[in-house]
Design a protein that fits this description.
The complex is a heterodimer of chains A (about 130) and B (about 130).
Chain A lengths: L12 H32 L6 H20 L3 H19 L7 H26 L8
Helix pairs in contact in A: 1-2, 1-4, 2-3, 3-4
Chain B lengths: L7 E5 L3 H14 L3 E5 L2 H11 L3 E5 L7 H9 L9 E5 L4 H9 L4 E4 L4 H19 L1
Parallel strand pairs in B: 1-2, 1-3, 3-4, 4-5
Classes of the chains: A mainly alpha (about 130), B alpha/beta (about 130).
Chain lengths: ~130, ~130
């Protein structure tokens, strides 16, 4: 299996800037990706069996788990990975409807990871974190 | 001992976010000519005209997966012996063994670091082209 050493220092500033811009663009799309996942989870709740719905959830989660890590959102990737593993097992088991209690903690963890990434970015920029009302 | 230059890469990847960052890394950072295909069928349709030096192939794609995509590309004269690198999170020992059986040069594990992707591929290619001459 291939591996490499970190060569970020070998990139030009223009190249690093393009990567940063790409990362910002990806981050801006995260709420939409999370909404897709939330919608897929909601569609599964209450259904006795919905293999197609479970496959759709799996695809959304699989994409997020993979791309988030590549773009540097490791916590989001890890949280998505837990949900991905669950969805994969559920598909292997025949696509039975999930119990809400199984999914809720993992979905919450995903949202928390997203919130944490936004908090970190705000802190890095020096913006104050306003308390929720 | 000479080495064959790597100039043209066929990227077969269904995730648009991974397509974008991989294209940036390979095209802008690595200077390669990259053809991006979102599906097996697109790859099969593009392969002959594009005539890649190397194929970067995702494994888990909707519809036809990477394994079957490779088998289809091998039936096209222009890509019957084109070197392949699998780009995948599926790297269990039995998966990697399968990729090797199919003749892949290497497997690059997802998530990969965009800033090191070119160096990783260059290393694989240099080893391959040195052995091929």
């Amino acid at each position: 299996m291939a591996s490499g050493t970190n060569t970020v220092d070998k990139l030009t500033e223009a190249q690093r800037a393009r990567l940063r811009a790409l990362r910002r663009s990806y981050e801006a799309e995260l709420p939409e990706k999370l909404a897709l996942i939330a919608g897929a989870v909601a569609a599964l709740e209450g259904a006795e069996s919905d293999r197609a719905g479970l496959e759709q959830l799996y695809q959304h989660i699989h994409k997020l788990a993979g791309s988030a890590a590549i773009y540097g959102f490791d916590e989001i990737s890890r949280a998505a990975g837990s949900l991905e593993a669950w969805a994969s097992s559920a598909l292997t088991a025949g696509g039975a409807a999930p119990a809400r209690v199984e999914l809720a903690p993992m979905v919450d963890a995903l949202h928390q990871a997203f919130s944490a990434s936004r908090t970190m970015r705000k802190r890095a920029r020096g913006a104050p974190i306003r308390p929720r009302r | 001992m000479g080495s064959r230059p790597l100039k043209r890469i066929l990227l077969v990847e269904d995730d648009p976010d991974i397509q974008t960052v991989t294209s940036l890394a390979l095209g802008s950072f690595g200077g390669y000519t990259v053809e991006v295909c979102s599906s097996a069928q697109q790859a099969i349709d593009s392969a002959a005209a594009f005539a890649p030096d190397l194929i970067l192939l995702d494994v888990m794609m909707p519809g036809m997966d990477g394994i079957h995509t490779l088998e289809a590309l091998r039936r096209i004269p222009e890509t019957s012996v084109t070197p392949v690198i699998f780009l995948t999170a599926r790297v269990q020992p039995h998966d990697v063994a399968r990729y090797k059986e199919l003749g892949s040069l290497a497997v690059i594990r997802k998530p990969f670091e965009p800033t090191t992707l070119v160096e990783t591929i260059d290393g694989i290619w240099n080893e391959y082209s040195g052995q091929a001459d």
